[in-house]
């Protein structure tokens, strides 16, 4: 089995798991400075982590999860 076949199978497995869980992966374009400023303002990001793409991704993911939560008061 080739490396490409293994990675292809792993991608397919992750895709099916996400689909089953009702989740999606989206690619977005966003202003890096504005995102960093918003995450810092919300105390989600330390200024020391502003250059870490993975930390920015997790912070944006956290904001989106909060926005998508069902409103408990509704």
3D structure, described in words:
The chain is 61% helix and 0% strand. It has 74 residues and is mostly helical. The mean pLDDT is 89.
Instruction: Calculate the terminal CA-CA distance, rounded to whole Å.
Output: 53 Å
Number of helices: 3
Using only CA atoms, what is the Rg?
16 Å
Q: Helix-strand pattern, N to C? A: HHH
Helix content: 55-70%
The biggest beta sheet reads: none
Give the integer mean of the pLDDT values.
Answer: 89
In terms of structural class, how would the helical and strand content be classed?
mainly alpha
Q: Unreliable stretches, pLDDT < 50, 5 or more residues? A: none
- Topology, number of strands: 0
Which descriptor suits the 3D outline? Answer: flat
- What percentage of amino acids are in beta strands? under 5%
Give a nutshell description of this structure.
This protein has helices spanning 3-21, 32-41, 53-68. With 74 residues, it is mainly alpha-helical. The chain is flat and about 50 Å long.
């Amino acid at each position: 089995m080739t490396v490409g076949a293994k990675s292809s199978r792993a991608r397919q497995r992750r895709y099916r798991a996400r689909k089953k869980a009702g989740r999606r992966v989206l690619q977005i374009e966003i202003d890096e400075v504005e995102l960093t400023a918003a995450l810092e303002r919300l105390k989600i990001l330390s200024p020391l982590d502003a250059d870490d793409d993975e930390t920015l991704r997790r912070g944006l993911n956290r904001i989106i999860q909060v926005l998508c939560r069902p409103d408990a008061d509704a």
